[in-house]
Design goal:
about 0% helix, ATP Synthase, domain 1, five-stranded mixed β-barrel, single chain, ion transport, mainly beta, about 90 residues
Length: about 90
């Protein structure tokens, strides 16, 4: 895979997760939105929800989020959150 996202999930106490991803969904204030490589620059307030990250190795990570901002630019995604915890996938 030539194109990927560099994603950072950041809380007030430090970086929770950082790595390369093929796709992520982010719970925006106006609804959840997806980000693939090549996404246009974008800034969004976060709502309560689940940030879902698919790593380039097909790993699947989900984090509950509450408040914050997301910044997307040049295939870099920074998700700054007020509160989070790892979400357990439901089967």
């Amino acid at each position: 895979m030539d194109k990927y996202l560099t994603v950072r999930l950041i809380a007030p106490y430090g970086i929770i997760w950082e790595g390369k991803a093929s796709f992520t969904t982010i719970p925006g204030q106006m609804g959840t939105f997806g980000v693939y490589p090549g996404h246009v620059p974008y800034v969004s307030m976060l709502g309560d929800g689940i940030a879902h990250i698919i790593g380039i190795d097909n790993s699947d990570m989900r984090f509950k989020t509450s408040g914050g901002f997301a910044f997307i630019r040049d295939d870099r995604v920074s998700i700054l959150i007020e509160k989070t915890e790892e979400a357990i996938p439901l089967d």
